[in-house]
Amino acid sequence: MRHPLRFAIKAECHKSKARHSVMTLPHAEVETPVFMPVGTQGTMKGILPEQLEALHCNLILGNTYHLGNRPGVDILKKGNGLHNWMHWNKALLTDSGGFQIVSLTQLCELTEDGVSFTSPYDGKQTLLTPEKSIEIQNAIGADIMMQLDDVVHVLHPDKDRVEEAMYSFTDPVTEASIISDIKDRSRESGPGDESDGEQDATYNALPPSLSYANDAMAIVRKFLLSRGEVPVDSF
C-alpha cells in the first residue's frame, strides 16, 4: 500500500543547510518553507476558504484546545471532522493544546496527568491529557498532529523549569498508552485503502490521521538516525 504521507527534498544549500521540500499529505501537497495561516477556531477571519485556495494556500492551523471546547469532540465527529465543517479541501495542522499553558497561564495548572484548565468560556474545569489531546485532533481529522507538550515562555528565567518541560508528557509509558488507547477506540473505523491489493493490519487499525502521524514519526526517526544525530534507543 502506498502511504499517503511522503517527504521529498527538492533543493538544498550545502553551505546554509536551507532547503526546499515537498510534503505530500492526505489533503494536499505542501511546499516548505511554508506560510501557514492560523485559523484558531476553525476559520480565518475576513477571508473565505475558497479565497485561501485561490491564493495557493495548502495548509492552515487549527487549535486543539479551543476546538475541543467549542464545538467539542462529539460535534466534530458528527460533522465528519473540521475539513467538512469549514469546507476546507486542503491540509490541516493542529497544535497539541500545550501553547495555552502560556497564552492562558492564569487559567491553567500543570498536574502529573496533564494540564487542568479553567474554561474562558464557561468557567468549567477540564483536564487536557496527552490521550485527550490526540482524541481531539483525531476528531478534527488533522493531516499533521502534535503530541501534548509543556510549553514554557521564551523569557522564563528558571532553567530547571525549562529542562523539566522537555520531559513532560513524553515518557514511554504515556506514549504507549496513547497509541494503545487510540487503537482500541478505532477498531470500528473500518478497513483502509485496499485498492492495490495490499493491506497493513496495524496501519488500518488506526484512524487515517493517526496512521499518517505514525508514518511521520517513522520518517523523522529514520532521517535523524541516518545523520547520526539521535541514539537508536531514544525513540
Strand order in space, largest sheet: 1-2-3
User: From N to C, what is the helix and strand string?
Assistant: EEEHEHHEHEEEHHHHH
Number of helices: 9
Distance from N terminus to C terminus (CA atoms, Å) equals 25 Å
Query: How does CATH name the architecture?
Result: Alpha-Beta Barrel
Measured as a percent range, the helix fraction is 25-40%
The outline comes out as globular
Pfam family, one: TGT
Domain tRNA-guanine(15) transglycosylase-like: 16-167
Biased composition (Basic and acidic residues): 181-190
Protein name: tRNA-guanine(15) transglycosylase-like domain-containing protein
List the helices and strands and how they pair.
Layout: E1 6-12, E2 19-24, E3 29-32, H1 49-54, E4 59-62, H2 64-78, H3 82-86, E5 91-94, H4 100-103, E6 108-110, E7 115-118, E8 125-128, H5 130-140, H6 159-166, H7 172-185, H8 201-205, H9 208-226
Parallel strand pairs: 4-5
Antiparallel strand pairs: 1-2, 2-3, 6-7, 7-8
Helix pairs in contact: 2-5, 5-7
Overall description:
- The chain has about 240 residues and is of the alpha+beta class.
- The chain has one domain: Queuine tRNA-ribosyltransferase-like (TIM Barrel, Alpha-Beta Barrel), CATH 3.20.20.
- It has helices at about 50-55, 65-80, 80-85, 100-105, 130-140, 160-165, 170-185, 200-205, 210-225; strands at about 5-10, 20-25, 30, 60, 90-95, 110, 115-120, 125-130.
- The strands form three sheets. A three-stranded antiparallel beta sheet has the order 1-2-3, with no helix packed on it. The protein has a three-stranded antiparallel beta sheet with strand order 6-7-8. Strands 4-5 form a two-stranded parallel sheet.
- Helix 2 (about 65-80) crosses helix 5 (about 130-140) and helix 5 crosses helix 7 (about 170-185).
- It is globular and about 45 Å long.
- About 25% of the residues are buried.
